[in-house]
Specification:
70% of the residues lie in helices and 0% in strands. The protein has 371 residues and is mostly helical. The longest helix is centred in the first third of the chain and has 21 residues. The two termini are 23 Å apart.
Length: 371
């Protein structure tokens, strides 16, 4: 069971099915995806049964059933997506209870290192790097999650290494979301404990290193120049570039469709960019109400409001978990997808369990240490 659990976590956190699909082709990627869900299903039947995350299950069922009423595409594709969502949430119910923060920290660390390796050894003209994750925005999420887990590390040397790797990897994604959230999380951590001011210094140092090695790395010219302008005291010019093609402009282009179909939505995949649009809505909340209407929308609001409350409630005692709840709750406003984003669903399931477990269990949870 330990080996099976290890493999499932590896596939989920390193996004291996999608990575193998890109690297080795459709056949290998499809088989890897099938294998992942077969292992999750097998683990579910073999492991002791625990109460699943009913909020996520109700959200998924309401979303897929209602959005399916307006879907005109291939039924097999839709049904397979629905089935995979249910298998993942149910299968992870017991598995996440076995995942201590130290296990997840090291998985995330390797994922972040893959981003750096991508930038150093496999540079490309786009200039935004993502490692295993292929999508820079998803890679930015990994860097932020890892950054939060660093606050659980008790060994100072390991904590510093983690901060450096996650912040540097996050900058290499050139994600506006990462930069904004890293600043917010760092400031909050300093308010909680002034000793955490070191993370701001590490971030500034990482930015300076990127500027220094820019000639050796093929970086995204537009965003790199914008950041360079901001650091060079040309703030207005830099922020003007970063504000181009903003998420607000993207969201507004879908407003009419959402308002005209607010009760039951416009149908599955209508807001994802797959049907009739060059880009998706890039907002999981708007995607939910736009495709499936107000019922799953309210379930999602309740789910994330509760997560936000639990995170703030425990932020002084469990800083990493409080900050992680802020990342989870904010990412849904910029995410390209939700119901098949298994990395996001994994940590959402884990964090919901972690914040909801009895206090005596939380007190017995050991911090990450080097052995």
């Amino acid at each position: 069971m330990k080996i099976l659990r290890f493999i499932v976590i590896t596939f989920s956190i390193w996004y291996l099915p999608t990575f193998i699909l890109q690297v080795s082709g459709e056949t290998a990627g499809s088989y890897t995806s099938y294998l992942m869900f077969i292992m999750i299903l097998g683990y579910y039947f073999l492991a002791p049964k625990v109460e699943p995350n009913f909020s996520l299950i109700f959200l998924g069922i309401s979303y897929f059933i209602i959005s399916g009423l307006g879907y005109s595409g291939e039924f097999d594709f839709f049904a397979f997506k629905f089935l995979k969502f249910l298998i993942f949430i149910l299968g992870m119910s017991e598995l996440v209870t076995r995942c201590k923060p130290n296990y997840l920290f090291y998985f995330l660390l390797i994922g972040a290192i893959s981003i750096i390796i991508n930038a150093v050894f496999f540079a490309h003209i786009y200039g935004r790097y993502s490692g295993f994750y292929l999508n820079p925005n998803l890679a930015a999420l990994v860097a932020l999650i890892g950054f939060c887990f660093c606050f659980k590390v008790s060994n100072r040397a390991l904590r510093m290494v983690g901060f450096i790797i996650f912040i540097f990897a996050g900058f290499l994604t050139f994600s506006r979301y990462f930069i904004l959230m890293w600043i917010c999380l760092s400031i909050i951590s300093v308010f909680i404990n002034r000793k955490n001011a070191e993370v701001l210094g590490i971030g500034i140092g990482s930015g300076i290193i990127i500027l220094a090695v820019a000639s050796f790395l093929q970086l995204n010219t537009e965003r790199f120049t914008a950041i360079e302008n901001i650091l060079g005291n040309q703030v207005e010019q830099g922020t003007k570039v970063l504000s181009q093609d903003s998420r607000i402009d993207t969201w507004s282009s879908f407003s009419e469709d959402i308002l005209n179909n607010v009760i039951f939505g416009k149908g599955y995949s209508s807001m994802s960019g797959d049907i009739g649009n060059s880009v998706g809505v890039h907002n999981s909340i708007l995607l939910t109400i736009g495709e499936a209407g107000i019922i799953p929308f309210f379930i999602m609001i309740i789910l994330f409001s509760r997560l936000f409350y639990l995170g703030l409630k425990t932020i002084k005692e469990e800083l990493f978990a409080g900050l992680l709840s802020l990342v989870m709750c904010s990412y849904i406003f910029v995410s390209h997808n939700f119901y098949d984003n298994y990395l996001l669903l994994f940590f959402l399931t884990w964090l919901t369990w972690y914040l909801s477990k009895p206090a005596n269990d939380a007190e017995s949870e050991s911090e990450i240490e080097t052995k």
